[in-house]
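<instruction>
Derive structure tokens from the sequence

<record> Sequence and structure tokens follow
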Amino acid sequence: MTKKPQPPSIKMKLPDEIIKFLDEQNIVIVSTFDENENIHCSVKGIIGSEETEKIFIIDVYKKRTYKNLKRNPKVSITAVDEQKFKGYTLQGKAKLIIQQKISKNVLERYEERITRRISNRVIKGVQKCTKSSKHHEGELPILPKYLIEIAVEKIIDLSPPSIRGQVST
């Protein structure tokens, strides 16, 4: 079976609203294609965007998602905020950046996000008068295995039509 030629990638500038929305998220669902063209979904930590047309995702394991992206760079990420009733799927092409080439700035942002996730979990537990025997984020590797840099080509607004485009607080 021969692969059909792919059209050139079209990078798109991300609207400020989406950059802000993604910055507020801790995790996203990353969808890739396996060797049989089946969809594979995985939860990954989002770092956000350093540029207006790229999104950065951290992967601490280097397993199935990594293998899938090496074979086929087509990817989508989905983020939702249940409280705001908003969400987006961003589709594009991924570039894999090995651990040694991840910028210091991105590594610092990764550490800040892990600290924020642990803090939020503790605060929510105190507010709900519940306790967790573990802080799972604290067991994550200190350094991510690699970085997924996504050049976004398409944005799908998952919000209900009645609230699309409204600025949320």
About this structure: The mean pLDDT is 84. Helices lie at 16-23, 64-71, 104-127.
